[in-house]
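User: I'm curious whether this sequence folds into something compact or stays loose and floppy. Could you predict its structure so I can see for myself?
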Amino acid sequence: MAVVVSLINMKGGVGKTTLTFNLAWYSAWKANLRVLAIDLDPQANLSQYFMGAEKYVEYLDSDKNTVVEIFEQFSAPKQIKGAPAPLDPKSVIHRLRRWSDGSLLDLVPSRLELAWTLKNPTEKAHLLPQFLAGVIDSYDLVLIDCAPTESILTTAAYRSSRYVAVPVKPEFLATIGLPLLARSLNEYRIMHQNQALEMAGIIFNDMRRSGTPPEQRKAVADVTELAKAHGWPVFDTVAYHSDSYPSGSRQSSPIFLTDNARNYVIGEFAAVADKFLKSVGVQK
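Assistant: Here's the prediction. I'll summarize afterward.
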């Protein structure tokens, strides 16, 4: 059964989607795992990273299912459709890549209409773990890319997950979203004491490798202090800044396939990915 991990930070612009994208690719291609990535953000950046802008638009134009259908499958039926029918979990999954050794990379895409789910959230948080229950045996790892807000989507991610990982960009106000996340997690745990939901750790990314600015050093110190107060681990590996990450996103390529990516950048990310996989128990 797959380990499910939500990548979340209540602050936006922290590199969460880029990290999720590269972790998914690394876990499938380099670690030989069966990986499912779920885009749980109405902005659908992860879907566009994986599919490329043109293919993503083609996917939407073909009217194929997205994560929206998971949450809206029991919405009020239209006359021509009649009563709602059970959703086929496989109809929501887009196959990205399959390797001869059995490892694979799949995606549950998102679309902007997911924002409508937030306007009518009643009794929907259970639908994501219900969907995963139908496909969980087909994967080793599920990564959920969460929106940077507290909403029904956050609750759905928590209900689906065994671990939470928190990407952090060391910058001014880097800690601003962490107290809200801590409160959100604590409230959820109190209300769901029969579920084990653990913090995998804080993952710093986009930090300057050399000549680290004082502001970044202070942000690292502040985040580390706050993490210690909450008992959260902090990764000792860092995905340092590199222009190859945005270049890879534009190419829909992970860092280890991005044109002109330096070997040391690839090695740094591999160290982060290996640490991540060990922290969630997928690798020893």
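Summary: Residues 242 and 265 are 7 Å apart (CA to CA). The chain has a mean pLDDT of 93.
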